[in-house]
Each structure stands twice: as structure tokens, then as C-alpha cells.
Design a protein that fits this description.
By secondary structure, the chain is α+β, with helices and mostly antiparallel strands. The protein has five helices and eleven strands. The strands form five sheets. It has a three-stranded antiparallel β-sheet, with no helix packed on it.
């Protein structure tokens, strides 16, 4: 069902604005995009070790989740926008980053668990080997680094900071994302993940506005 509102035609007479999605939903989704941006700005200014960082991260999670809720409610009753949101919802379940954020929000809201964890300096090998040997003298002082049998391997340096932790939602554990939009995530700290999600949702809301926003008819 399309939403039709009468408006004043500048050239005289009446015209009608036709919406394929409730305009209130579009406006509220756009406002949540702005809240996401504000939360990210506060995260950038806050020391990750401070309590305030976690608060801004949760603000981001809430705004992120609400965008999907607003678009879903706004699409109800209209076949075109409802079909579009069905594809969005399906993709959200498939994408590691979006899926994790959905369940991290649920965990933050409905449990006593935190979604972040302080991270010490670490070195994470990027090549999988089936055989390992005990830590060598050279690697004893580096947490997570172990001597590997075979040729030299590539590794990712993880600086101290805050990282995402696995979250549990309705008895199912969800690991921090390693990929988004089919691309490997080089950094998976809360701020980096929030920026990736912001870019995706800002484009998503813009697409909804362009496809299902106002159309004037005489």
C-alpha cells in the first residue's frame, strides 16, 4: 500500500506526494545515522581503556539496530519496499559484521555480559600450519607467537587496545567478524567495525530515500 499525501503545487492547483515507504520511517532512520556518526566521533575522542568508550560503543549498537527496525516498519504494507527490505534482512544474516553487531546489541541490552575486552600486544600468524613446536627463546616474550615448522610465515601485529569479544544471544555464540561485504577485515576493533557499519548503513538509508521517498503526481 502506497502512502499518499496532498500537497500544494507551486504552479497552481493540488498535487499528491506518493511514498513507497512511510516517510516517518525514512526520517527516523536518517536521524539514527546521525546518532551513529555522533557515537563514532565520541569513540574517536575517548581513550579505549575508559568506561566512556564502552558507553559510546553501546550507543552506536543501539542506533545501528534501530535503523533496521525503522526501515522494516516503514516498509510494511508495500510490496516494493517490503521486498527490498526482505533482501536487506537476508543479507544482514549472512554478512559476518552485520550479523555480529545485531547479536552484540542484543547481548548488551538483554544480558550482563560486555561486548568488548582489553587487548594486550599480540602477534597473530596469518598462515595455518598443521605442525607446531613449543615457543622458542626468541618468541617467549611475545604473547600468541609460536615457532612454526616450515618456511617463515606472515603475521598480523595487534597493538594494545580494546577488541571485540564473542557474544552469546539466545544460547548461540557469535564470534567477532573476520569479513564484511566479502572482504577480509584487517582490523576488528570496535571503532574500525563501527566505521565499516556506518558506511554500509549510510548508503542503505540513502538508497531507501532515493527508491522509496517522495514522488509528486498531479
Amino acid at each position: 500500500m502506497q502512502i499518499v499525501a496532498q500537497c500544494l503545487n507551486p504552479s497552481g492547483g493540488n498535487c499528491f506526494e506518493v511514498f513507497d515507504m512511510d516517510p516517518k520511517a525514512l526520517a527516523q532512520a536518517r536521524e539514527r545515522v546521525e546518532r551513529m556518526a555522533a557515537a563514532i566521533a565520541e569513540m574517536e575522542k575517548t581513550d579505549p581503556s575508559m568506561v566512556g568508550f564502552e558507553r559510546h560503543w553501546i550507543d552506536f549498537l543501539l542506533a545501528h539496530n534501530t535503523i533496521f527496525t525503522k526501515l522494516e516498519q516503514g516498509a510494511k504494507g508495500n510490496g516494493r519496499s517490503q521486498g527490498w527490505f526482505g533482501e536487506v534482512k537476508s543479507f544482514r544474516k549472512q554478512d559476518e559484521l552485520l550479523r555480529y553487531l545485531h547479536h552484540a546489541r542484543n547481548c548488551a541490552e538483554h544480558s550482563l555480559e560486555t561486548t568488548t575486552l582489553k587487548q594486550e600486544f599480540d602477534v597473530v600468524p596469518q598462515t595455518a600450519w598443521t605442525e607446531r613446536i613449543p615457543p622458542t627463546e626468541a618468541s617467549k616474550g611475545v604473547p600468541g607467537l609460536r615457532g612454526y615448522v616450515g618456511k617463515p610465515f606472515s603475521a598480523r601485529i595487534v597493538p594494545p587496545g580494546v577488541r571485540l569479544r564473542p557474544v552469546s544471544d539466545r544460547g548461540v555464540e557469535y564470534l567477532p567478524p573476520e569479513r564484511h561485504l566479502g572482504v577480509e577485515l584487517w582490523k576488528c576493533d570496535p571503532l574500525s567495525v563501527a566505521k565499516h557499519a556506518f558506511d554500509y548503513l549510510e548508503c542503505l538509508v540513502t538508497e531507501a530515500e532515493e527508491q522509496f521517498g517522495v514522488e509528486q503526481r498531479p
